[in-house]
Amino acid sequence: MEVGVVGLLRTAWIAATLPILIAALPFSWLSSFRGAVLGFAKRGKTMQSSSQKFTVPQKFFCHFYLVAVAWTTVLLVATLMYAYKAVPLVSDSLLHPSLPNPYTGGSHIFSWHKSHLIPISYKYSVWHSVLLLVLMEVQVLRRLFETIYVFNYSSSARMHIFGYLTGLFFYTAAPLSLCCNNIADIYKFSINGVAEFIVKGKSSMREVEFDWLQLVNSLLKLGWLQWIGAAIFFWGWIHQRQCHAILGSLRENSEQNDEYVIPHGDWFEIVSSPHYLAEIVIYAGLVVASGGTDLTIWLLFGFVVTNLVLAAAETHRWYLRKFESYPKKRRAIIPFVY
């Protein structure tokens, strides 16, 4: 299962990224293909009012984050319970013989004795997944809050149905990519727990004692690279929140004045799409926090970069067409470069 999931995810990320890279090639014979890809990426202000075919309301963005929060929470809880009960970093005293260890195989009676055979590198791999999923949960919870309470999507704002389906794919595949190397063992552990509950019943199962101090100590044992990655993540997270607040306030005013205005403040002073730049920083933080050796997470990051650069370029062109006085020093998404 593990190899299948990892291979499927990697293939999916490559398949999703490749059309964007091909569309970026400067060949005239690709103009029709480039136009189709750009059409799929357009939404909101960058989509012409006449282009309403195969579109859905932009407020459907909320669906992405409902799916993301639900799915990330399921993966986080399952991964955390597996890490805490089966492969703890702090001490083997956290292992309860009533819960099976799918990594070692065999029944729960012997799992505790076999726990010493688990490679320490594997234990750290599982706890890296826990940290990555915690960061992802922080991100999608904030995005869900923003789509409901910060953004005031116009009733006329639309996005292409292909872009909508891409968003649903992304927020299903991205959280899974953060723990895919351990998902087979996590799945077995979860299934065994459910089976034991069904067979024995709640009254016959030992109550799970969760020690938050032990959990924190396990996370603190992760390496310096993980915490540098977390710091990069929150740097981007904070700036994205600020940029979204600026956009949200502009959308409130545009509803009243029926007119777009040039955004100012924070990273808007250097790029046209600072919220996209912050998203790239956020996922760069996840790459660093993962240790930088997981190809699946690198492919996820590659899709994020190519997709957002494409969208930011289209937004930048829209600003230049819309405003004659648009600041010339601003770039599309990469400060001072592009």
Automatic annotation (TrEMBL):
GO CC terms of this entry: endoplasmic reticulum
Gene Ontology biological process: dolichol-linked oligosaccharide biosynthetic process; polyprenol catabolic process
Pathway(s) per entry: Protein modification; protein glycosylation
Organism, scientific name: Malus domestica
Compartment list: Endomembrane system
Topological type in the membrane: Multi-pass membrane protein
Transmembrane portions of the chain: 12-41, 62-84, 161-184, 219-238, 298-320
The 3-oxo-5-alpha-steroid 4-dehydrogenase C-terminal domain, residue ranges: 226-338
Protein name: 3-oxo-5-alpha-steroid 4-dehydrogenase C-terminal domain-containing protein
UniProt cross-references to InterPro entries, sorted A to Z: 3-oxo-5_a-steroid_4-DH_C, Dfg10/SRD5A3
MF terms in GO: 3-oxo-5-alpha-steroid 4-dehydrogenase activity
Keywords: Membrane, Transmembrane, Transmembrane helix
Lineage: Eukaryota, Viridiplantae, Streptophyta, Embryophyta, Tracheophyta
A Pfam family of this chain: Steroid_dh
